[in-house]
Design goal:
GO cellular component, one term: plasma membrane
Pfam family, one: ABC2_membrane_7
Oligomer: single chain
CATH class of one domain: Alpha Beta
Number of strands: 13
Keywords: ATP-binding, Membrane, Nucleotide-binding, Transmembrane, Transmembrane helix, Transport
Bound molecules: adenosine-5'-triphosphate
Strand order of the largest sheet: 5-6-7-3-8-9
Family: Belongs to the ABC transporter superfamily. ABCG family. Eye pigment precursor importer (TC 3.A.1.204) subfamily.
GO molecular function: ABC-type transporter activity; ATP binding; ATP hydrolysis activity
């Protein structure tokens, strides 16, 4: 029997090369992979794109990641009793142990930089669960060991990890171009000019075959947009822009035609060749696709039946008595049959065919035999490999000073430095301007003409702007205009404009408060209730409805944006020397009790207080979201 995986230490050379290569560079010692003639024909274009990429951004240094997972076991508590009884504690307070189900049973493997690993298995075999565990995102306790360059999963590792989920997480209202440009502006390194970032986005769009739909809206369940396959490519593109050292993808080819699927796997392979560690789950790859994988893990009901080199899989199964029925069988089909417990019937020499019968006992015994063989033949070799200490271009061994540590962190995390990241994230928390500014900002620097043309062509852009504006700008403007003139306020255009600006300022601040409460509570119902109560308290404390607030809650006005807004509104209506008729004499407006109580001396302090709240609530929301992301 051949060893499942003959290690060739390609990683050091790859690590060195990762600075210069992006795709299609073969690692030394790796299996040469066939590429279909059609795709070969496309190679010149891709190579052009790649060389341009090299000269632009993706030479950002990678930290090669060797991922090892040993005996990964994961189970969940089932909500419904397996006996069919309702296990609700309210109805039957029994003390039966909660029913559990083990989704992963001791899965092991090693993936090194420069390698592309595919997880294969029937639907429900645990591929997504394993992938999620490797991405450090699985809730609850995962038994076994998962290490990244010999260390446990950490927040720094998280920043080096790209994860493309099965269900695309994209803003449905943005176009493809906007989505990727926004990601590029946020995540690419600061050394790159905006022009470079835009070029990189354009290149990625071409690379992923998204040119035709670049101005199409992404869409979602309600809003019809680009196709599912195109959406998947946009998701991959977003993660590619992040330039992760470890890239995990859940079914990136599902729903795609075979050419597009192949193009994506070629791209993934290229990304791995640039020094990344790439892991993907895949359903039913063609033999052409299968040949592009360096390693495979095959799961059957959460149990591993193979983990090792992709090109040694047939030899391995042949060595334990499972020969394919035909010489030119697609290895992926063969593996899926085995994982389903369907073995080729090799006992009939002249009539070799697959057992199509749905004999569960036979299927189970085949699965058991494969699992036992894995434990006997493959697992010991894998276990031995885990004990070998491998240090490949890993993080510097301690002693790094704070400055370099911080700069590495900034570089890895936001690329563009703290300021750009923070500002753009902050902008993202301003609903009225959201991504428009980011996209416009980048695009205008890149190519104003192209951007303007795109904007003009994209009727959706205007439709979306028009869709957003009523709630955030137009509605308050109309409301203020009507009430201003009907309310008999000072008939001065300057005063009116100032009043309008104060109201819009107030709207933005209150949105910020809503965002902060939403981000802190992460629960719509609770956040809505708390926001309503808080707004009401702020309004009451603001000084408009009640002037004499009990002293023990009088301080509330200092955190109430309504208070500052009200002061400013009154302030723009009345000047310091203005008088009003009080009986027979004229009194100063500033001496009017309610206005005196408000105190209109320092309007700039009020503006400053609102400005602090405008930014502060968003910072709070941002930090709360970061905390959520971290946990
Ligand atoms: N939170 C959960 N609660 C209950 N069952 C779960 C949960 N998560 C996963 N499962 C079950 O675990 C099994 C493995 O799920 P997983 O999504 O990992 O399979 P998969 O191989 O990725 O399937 P597919 O190829 O269809 O996406 C499935 O039977 C699924 O129903």
């Amino acid at each position: 029997m051949m060893p499942p995986e003959q290690e060739t230490n390609t990683t050091t050379s790859l690590a060195n090369r990762s600075e210069n290569a992006w795709v299609h560079a073969e690692p030394s010692g790796s299996t040469t992979t066939d590429v279909s003639p059609r795709l070969e024909a496309q190679m010149p274009d891709q190579q052009q794109a790649n060389s341009a990429c090299r000269s632009s951004i993706l030479h950002r240094s990678l930290r090669p990641v060797t991922l090892k997972f040993e005996d990964v076991t994961y189970g969940i508590n089932l909500r419904i009793s397996t006996t069919g009884k309702d296990s609700s504690p309210c109805l039957s307070p029994t003390h039966e142990p909660k029913p559990t189900r083990t989704l992963l049973h001791g899965v092991s493997g090693v993936v090194r930089p420069g390698e592309l690993l595919a997880m294969l298995g029937p639907s429900g075999s645990g591929k997504t669960t394993l992938l999620t565990a490797l991405a450090g995102r699985l809730p609850g306790k995962v038994s076994g060991t998962i290490t990244y360059n010999g260390k446990a999963f950490s927040s720094s590792m998280k920043r080096k990890t790209g994860f493309v989920t099965q269900d695309d997480v994209l803003y449905p209202h943005l176009t493809v171009l906007e989505t990727l440009t926004y990601a590029a502006l946020l995540r690419l390194p600061k050394e790159l000019s905006k022009q470079d970032k835009i070029e990189q986005t354009e290149m990625l769009i071409r690379e992923l075959g998204l040119a035709r739909c670049r101005n199409g809206v992404v869409g979602g369940t309600i809003l019809r947009g680009i196709s599912g396959g195109e959406r998947k490519r946009v998701s991959i593109g977003q993660e590619m822009l992040v330039n992760p050292s470890l890239l995990l993808l859940d079914e990136p080819t599902s729903g795609l035609d075979s050419t597009t699927a192949q193009r994506i796997v070629v791209t993934l392979r290229g990304l791995s060749r640039g020094g990344r560690t790439v892991i993907t789950t895949i359903h039913q790859p063609s033999s052409r696709l299968y040949r592009m994988f360096d390693k495979v893990v095959v799961l059957s009901d959460g149990c591993p039946i193979y983990s090792g080199k992709a090109d040694q899989v047939m030899d391995y199964f042949g060595s334990i008595g499972y020969m394919p029925a035909f010489n030119f069988v697609n290895p992926a089909d063969f593996l899926l049959d085995l994982a389903n417990g369907i073995a080729p019937d090799v006992r009939q020499d002249d009539q070799i065919e697959f057992q199509g019968r749905l004999d569960h006992d036979d299927q189970n015994s085949t699965k058991q035999s494969l699992i036992t063989s894995y434990k006997k033949n493959l697992y010991p070799a894998l276990k031995q490999r885990f004990t070998q200490v491998v240090r490949i271009n890993g993080p510097p061994a301690g002693g790094s000073n704070l400055k370099s540590c911080l700069s590495q962190f900034c570089q890895a995390y936001c690329g563009g430095g703290w300021a750009s990241l923070f500002l753009l994230h902050l902008l993202g928390l301003f609903p009225p301007i959201q991504c428009h500014i980011c996209v416009s900002f980048g695009a205008s620097n890149a190519n104003k003409r192209t951007f303007l043309r795109d904007v003009r062509l994209s009727s959706y852009y205007f439709a979306r702007m028009a869709g957003d504006l009523p709630m955030e700008l137009v509605l308050p403007t109309v409301f203020v205009t009507v009430t201003y003139w009907m309310g008999g306020l000072k008939p001065s255009l300057v005063t009116f404009v100032l009043t309008l600006l104060i109201i819009l300022f107030n709207v933005l601040v209150s949105q910020g408060l809503g965002l902060a409460l939403g981000a802190i509570l992460m629960e719509v119902k609770q956040a809505t209730t708390l926001a309503s109560v808080t707004m009401l308290v702020f309004l009451l404390a603001g000084g408009y409805y009640i002037q004499h607030i009990p002293c023990f809650i009088a301080w509330l006005k200092y955190i109430s944006f309504s208070h500052f807004c009200y002061k400013l509104l009154v302030g723009v209506q009345y000047s310091v020397n203005e008088v009003y008729e009080c009986g027979l004499v004229k009194c100063k407006v500033m001496d009017f009790p309610a206005i005196k109580y408000l105190g209109l001396d320092n309007k700039w302090w009020d503006v400053a207080a609102l400005a602090v709240m405008l930014v502060g609530y968003r910072v709070l929301a941002y930090l709360a979201l970061k905390m959520v992301q971290r946990h």
